[in-house]
Design brief:
The protein is an alpha/beta fold. The structure holds adenosine-5'-diphosphate (ADP) and alpha-D-glucopyranose.
């Protein structure tokens, strides 16, 4: 099958969150299964052409944005990790005004949502068609991700299913319903579609223009990134006002759990941790200096404590976090100025907390301030791939108190590294973590239902208590967690089934 992934991020080139990981890992897996997969993303300022060895295709692409014709160049390179036989080609749309001349992808501190985002992503969603025509390469499946590229499925349905695209079907993956691309409808003329389409294609949203809603109405098939979140999003509580649209498309809408990239997230191969480890190393693995989980995690924990300036104590549990500092992730309940639970957790319990994150400025400020007042709470406000690996390996527990979580990758990374997640019972967290049962010792983590500071406090307290009082059960949970299979292969099979169903439509 020929598949074009149209996305606003793809790791390692451009990443703000799990979307980037998911797009690249799914593409590589599909290519390994024999499919022909290309990815197209914008060439942002941060995508360094020299560092990544991008090549200019010397093509001039153009597409209509409103009454103007916007022109752009296109660069390419094979996705790192591709096989030689069947590489995933990544195409970068180069338009300086829209993407190349600014640092953020979607905004920056002073302007979290760039005023011209509707124009930028309308352009991007349309230029894809010219790219394929100029390459003379037409996909069977146009796979779009989130609101930023949702419009491509609308363009396919209204006007572009011609000149090579006659047999193409579209699939929309919703990675996060909390971001829909809702703008004033004055932006609609950018699409160069008639106003009749505004209503027919489902753009209309209380007199505003909703990019994701139109994608939900127009894509041939839809999915989100875990079965539980697929169910939740059809309810008012989690539907962000699009629950009725999703119920309307229920027959075409499923949940497929993300996988994780086992080459990058694997304690047996990880170059960013002091000792590579596995549950029980074989003779061959021992010869390659791969150690058992207890030794490997102890070394990682000591390195983590050292690097973050915590007392190097193997007997105190470390709670790790790697996260966007955003409301979605439960940051209000954890760090909210007057009622956050992080302060009381660190004050009352014998433990250490390490957090790596960037995001909302109020939260960055609170986290920094807390770190200056508590000796057992350390934070780094930055993005760091190396630190994130060390935290996954060196922590005893990993905290993710998400308000909602479409899938969540970090809790899966944690499990594979033998770090027990403390999570809220929602979305992909609920689909991947099993609650500790004190009587039987079963489970892989600690789960709570209600999102409030008290529940977070109590559940961290429970994990902390188990660390000191049920040590053998905790160690057995680590081994069980590490044996979980989150490979992309299983999920990619489900995507292929969905693609086939889209083509049948
Ligand atoms: P989301 O996409 O909603 O932020 P996910 O759990 O799906 O949540 O994915 C988050 C991804 O971003 C993970 O790969 C995680 O390691 C990474 N990440 C988040 N914050 C940071 C950070 N400060 N430094 C490095 N990686 C980070
Ligand atoms: C989104 C979601 C996250 C998911 C990721 C990749 O950013 O918030 O839960 O894991 O996309 O699909």
């Amino acid at each position: 099958m020929k598949i074009l992934m149209a996305a606003s991020e793809a790791a390692p080139f451009a990443k703000t969150g799990g979307l980037a990981d998911a797009v690249s890992a799914l593409s590589l897996t599909l290519a390994n299964m024999g499919h022909e997969v290309n990815i197209v993303i914008p060439r942002y300022f941060v995508v360094d052409k020299v560092r990544y060895g991008l090549k200019d295709l010397n093509l001039s692409l153009s597409s209509q944005v409103g009454t103007e014709t916007a022109k752009c160049a296109v660069w390419t390179v094979n996705m790192p990790g591709s096989s030689k036989k069947n590489p995933v080609k990544t195409y970068f749309i180069e338009h300086d005004e829209f993407f190349g001349c600014r640092e953020g992808f979607y905004g920056y501190d002073k302007e979290p949502d760039y005023f011209d985002n509707p124009r930028r992503f309308t352009f991007f969603s349309r230029i894809i068609f010219d790219l394929c025509r100029k390459l003379n390469w037409f996909p069977d499946i146009l796979h779009v991700h989130d609101w930023q590229t949702a419009l491509a499925s609308v363009f396919l349905k209204y006007g572009e299913r011609r000149g090579g695209f006659e047999k193409t079907s579209s699939v929309l993956t919703i990675h996060n319903l909390g971001y829909q691309g809702i703008y004033h409808k004055d932006n609609f003329p950018n699409t160069a579609l008639g106003w009749d389409v505004f209503y027919q294609a489902g753009f209309e949203d209380w007199n505003m223009m909703n990019f994701l809603k139109a994608g939900i109405h127009c894509a041939d098939k839809l999915n989100t990134v875990s079965p539980r979140y697929a169910e939740e999003t059809k309810t008012q509580a989690f539907g962000f006002r699009l629950d009725s649209s999703l119920r309307y498309r229920a027959e075409d809408y499923i949940g497929i759990l993300n996988g994780i990239d086992g080459k990058i997230w694997n304690p047996k191969l990880d170059p960013f941790i002091p000792l590579k480890y596995t549950v029980k190393p074989s003779k061959l693995e021992r010869e390659k200096s791969i150690v058992g989980v207890a030794v490997g995690k102890a070394a990682a924990k000591a390195a983590l404590q050292r690097q973050y300036g915590l007392p190097e104590n193997p007997d105190v549990p470390v709670i790790g976090m790697v996260t966007r500092l955003a409301e979605q992730k439960g940051m209000g309940e954890l760090f909210g100025p007057s009622y956050g639970s992080a302060w009381s957790i660190c004050r009352d319990m014998e433990l250490q907390v390490v957090i790596l994150g960037k995001g909302d400025s109020w939260c960055e400020h609170e986290v920094t301030s807390l770190a200056s007042r508590l000796s057992n709470f350390k934070a780094r406000i930055l993005n760091s791939e190396t630190d994130s690996h060390l935290i996954e390996a060196g922590s005893d527990f990993f905290l993710m108190p998400s308000r909602y979580e479409p899938c969540g990758l970090n809790q899966m990374y944690s499990l594979i590294y033998g770090t027990l997640p403390i999570v809220r019972n929602t979305g992909g967290l609920a689909d991947t973590v099993e609650n500790f049962n004190q009587d039987t010792g079963e489970g892989t983590g600690f789960i709570f239902d209600q999102l409030n500071p008290r529940s977070i406090y109590d559940t961290v307290g429970w994990a902390n208590w188990a660390y000191y009082n049920c040590r053998s059960q905790v160690e057995a949970m680590r081994v069980r967690a590490m044996k979980k299979d989150f490979s992309w292969e299983k999920s990619a099979e489900k995507y292929v089934e969905m693609y086939k169903a889209a083509l049948r439509k």
